[in-house]
Amino acid sequence: MRAFILERYGRKDGARIGEVPEPQQRDDDVLIQVHAASLNVLDSKIRDGEFKLILPYRLPLILGNDVAGVVVRVGPRVQRFKVGDEVYARPDKDRIGAFAELIAVKEADLSSKPNTLTMEEAASIPLVGLTAWQALIEKAQLRKGQKVLIHAGSGGVGTFGIQLAKHLGAFVATTTSTANVEWVKRLGADVVIDYRKDDFEKMLADYDVVINSLDAATLRKSLRVLRPGGRLISISGPPDGGFGEELGLPRFLRLAMLLLSYRIRREAKRLKVSYSFLFMRASGDQLRQITSLIDAGVIRPVVDRIFPFDSIREAMAYVDIGRTKGKVVVKMR
Fold first, then answer.
1. What does UniProt give as the signal peptide span (predicted)?
2. N or C: which end of the chain has fewer CB within 10 A?
């Protein structure tokens, strides 16, 4: 089968389209014919080798963390799905490979595709949807009437997170560029700060939650908009000790992560707020809840551009620029 294969870390020309064997299917796996897959910043970070210490993939590796397609075979222990079902997923971190004609996904990580979405729209959802869900609902325990700042409101996690936070009844602020201010307001944001003109740190105060996906400077400034007891959750790092424990990493790597996040944790403690890092996990159960919200019209996908599979390198270059509105998708079929 055809796939987009990473052969060397750290080089943008280290990945290519080529022929590989079909994936091996386990007893609790569903084999999916891929119709569409979306690109994430995570794909670029894996390509560049940023996660090779904590996600020790064997090369060559098929990239891709979001998939939508049709079931073509099920393992003997699979109960929820059958051949012909339309499904979507964020495969487990150890079993990525959505940029291919076929992928085997564990049944527990899979959900039926939303009825109201195309394959391309569905492929745009899993990773960012689960990230927003786990940040806002699991970690932040966001409640009605609370105030949340979601950085990068026009990005994949931002566009989904704004809609989810509003559904939960929160007051939502976000940051974006001048060109996207009015557009992000239409997604539901109550306050939109143009980072090219204004400093969010000087305009916001007493927030309950901040979701950060930007750089270290933004992370530090975000601490100062929180009320005492508030939560800063970062999906862009630095990792903390809890993350190392979740992955079952060796003690020296867990210690390294504690050191990487020492300054931000120390500053958070001084300000009487909390800091945590989120590396989202696959979850078919949560994805089914997201599916219900999508089919009910509560949340709608935001797709910036759709590329043919043969143009996947151009699609990754477009994502690398960092100016997408929502998600970029590659169409496999």
1. none
2. C
Q: Do domains 2-124+302-331 and 127-277 have the same CATH topology?
A: no
Give me the residue label for tokens 């539901």: 188
> pTM for the complete prediction?
0.96
Closest CA to 18 of 98, 100, 125: 100
- Please provide residue 254's backbone torsions phi and psi, each rounded to the nearest 5 degrees: -65, -40
The CATH number, out of the four listed (3.40.50.1000, 3.90.180.10, 3.40.190.10, 3.40.50.2300), of the domain defined by the range 2-124+302-331: 3.90.180.10
Closest CA to 51 of 199, 205, 266, 249: 249
Instruction: Indicate the SS3 state at residue 301.
Output: coil
127 has a pLDDT exceeding 90: yes
C-alpha 302, offset from chain centre:
14
- Interatomic CA distance for residues 101 and 35, integer angstroms: 8
Q: 240 pLDDT exceeds 90?
A: no
